[in-house]
Amino acid sequence: MPDLISALHLSAPEATLAVGGLVLLMLGAFMGEKSARLVSILSVALLVAATAVTVTGPLGRAFNGAYVADPLAVYGKAVIFLSSAVAIILGGGWMQRARIARFEYPILIVLASAGMGMMASSGDLISLYIGIELHSLALYVLAAFHRDDLKASEAGLKYFVLGALSSGLLLYGASLIYGFSGSMRFDEIAAYAATNPSPGLIFGLVFLICGLAFKVSAAPFHMWTPDVYEGAPTPVVALFATAPKVAAMVLIARTLEGAFAGSHDQWAQVLILISLISFAVGAFGGLAQKDLQRLLAYSSIANIGYALLGIAAGTTAGIQAMLVFMTLYVIDQFGFFAILLSLSRGGRPIRQISDLAGLRRDKPVTALALTALCLSVLGMPPFSGFWGKFYVFGAAADAGYWMVGAAGLVASVVAGFYYLRIIKLMWFDKAPEGIEPTDASPIEAKTIAWVAAAFSFPLVIVGLTWIEPLSRAAAVGFGAG
Fold first, then answer.
1. For residues 230-261, b (16+ Cβ closer than 10 Å) or e, as one string?
2. Would you call 61 helix, strand, or coil by DSSP?
3. I need a surface site. Which of 43, 56, 248, 415 has the fewest CB within 10 A?
4. What is the pTM of this model?
5. pLDDT digit string (tens) for 14-47?
6. By the 8 A CB rule, do 109 and 88 touch?
7. DSSP string of 237-251?
8. In terms of Cα–Cα distance, which of 459, 410, 159, 422 is closest to 306?
9. Which sign does the torsion angle of CA 18, 21, 27, 31 carry?
């Protein structure tokens, strides 16, 4: 019994979300659709409470090593839970205006967050799979949340079918690893791999990496990303672009550095290849896009390639670089999607890149915020995106992968075309004659957009004084390299 109590104490963040989500589900079921706003508010409070439980809770291992609470998990879960809370805030008002507000929306995000928390704390192959499936099942439903929209239904179906395929790859890889090592636990797999390296174990690892790469939409496992980003409701896409990617990146780091640290030379080659393909697909694929959300999909593919470089380095500095990059990336993405949610004409959302022409006349502050965010994701100094890439490329160069870092810089230059095109349209092109003025912006979307843009510069200078030591402590506490 003391062991069970200790285990429940360690897993309190996920337990808080699971129990709280079920309570909110009962509340919504009894109150009906009129409870949507109340459930959203309580869901945000629940996620903030789970964050507080995470950062103040004890560290250790539970459930025979299947659950790990260490500094890396704490850092990752804090970013995940707060990102999910922001996604609920962004989505609540949009759902009301689109007349599709349902109390299930925030509850699905809460339950997905419980799965993402499990991913960040996975200590064996079973908890890894449970975390992935718990969050994935909720995301499949969220992708098709707008049931009357054909594109949303198509997005949900594509995401589900390709997600099932990736789960098959992941399970096949996990079964091979278990078959050769005789254990599910990452520490025991690491001990076996260090003394008994075998092609079968590496073969299983490759399949496992392929399954995990799907979850972060890294090329060539990105097929679902542009269509889902285009078809799913915009606030849902904002969630897809942030919290699940952080959870998957932490899980990839934990799996590779925890279970296969001795096989770094083998899996680093796979990650580098995935990074290079992601650079190319993200940079060149985005050039032909006309839809803003599809453009952001290709941008996310390229940026995940940058983050994977940090893990490929196989060092403490590399893990820290990945955490810094993902934290800054999440803030920029929320800024982008908040601006998309704040822009409409005649009640119709602005989705085409060409619709941004002349935005400086109607909304000069929003145009300025979008300019700052474009320059940040581009990696222009001294914006936040520059610092994220500075850490990642520095860690890659220190590990001897400076040529890969140079390829990433070239991809950034290519991607600069579509970011600079947005800036040109807003500031130098004229809006078409007779076009309606933009509608008044919702307060929640406008506020989040402006705060994210202000963080990209100059607040990032202050923010890094907190993010840098916290991410270093998380990487050191994890013990990579």
1. bbbbbbbbbbbbbbbbbbbbbbbbbbbbbbbb
2. strand
3. 56
4. 0.94
5. 999 999 999 999 999 888 878 888 999 999 999 9
6. yes
7. HHHHTSHHHHHHHHH
8. 410
9. negative
